[in-house]
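Incident review: delayed structure delivery

Summary: a single-chain prediction request sat in the queue longer than the usual turnaround. Root cause was a stuck worker, restarted by the on-call engineer. No data loss occurred. The affected request and its eventual output are reproduced below so the record is complete for anyone auditing the incident later.

Affected input:
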Amino acid sequence: TAGARRTDHRPAELAVTENGDRNLRSPDINSNGLAHAGKLQRMTPWLLVAIALLIAAVLTQVLVPRLGERRIERHLAGNGGEAFVAIAAMPALRLLRGTGDRILVRGRRLAIGMSTEGGGLTALDGFAEVDIALRDFSTGPFEVAYFELTRNGDGPYLMRSEAVTSGVALAGYSSEQIGGLVLLLHVLAKQAPLGSRGVPVSVEVELTSAEGIVSISSGGGTIAGYPAGPIAAMIAAAVARRLEINY
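Output delivered after worker restart:
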């Protein structure tokens, strides 16, 4: 009978022992869990801030260049034609200061106004790489078959262009509109044989830009046998003014 009692008591003692162990371990588990929860609570605000900053940085990197691209495209094609612009800058906020890594522009059948306002190639000077190619567009008295303006790094701009004008088209522009070229252009306009006949303009020059002033560093071209360098600078500046990003 005594042995039976001991046999009966062993499970109870084991059960008690197991329950005791559980009871002893429970405070440790609860303490660790509360400590871990406390750490998470302290970390959560900083984690949320870090996530919000990351999302803001990604959105800025994507949206700022896209906004600039759309604005330039609308500016270029405001009077008709098609335009495509791609801008790259890392970080994108550099674009707010007028600087970036690359600007690529493609367009055709555009109508780009010409004026004597300053600015030169300032809109492009802040980019490390410039790649512009326009086809079949008009600017001032010139119908331009193609226009290419490129630059890599700190080197000069390389401009290539083929255009045509006429005495009739030139005669329609005043000295205020075509600036220092008025004498040359109006001489051409008054030459009867030129009249409405096309006058070819062919240009391949290197341009430098500093403080809003465009200078010809090498190369040249002709318009009816006259030097066309100043005309090249005028056309390049007219295009560049349409590429300004105004955020």
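Verification: Confidence is low (pLDDT under 50) at residues 1-7, 9-20, 22-26.
Action items: add queue-age alerting; document worker restart procedure.
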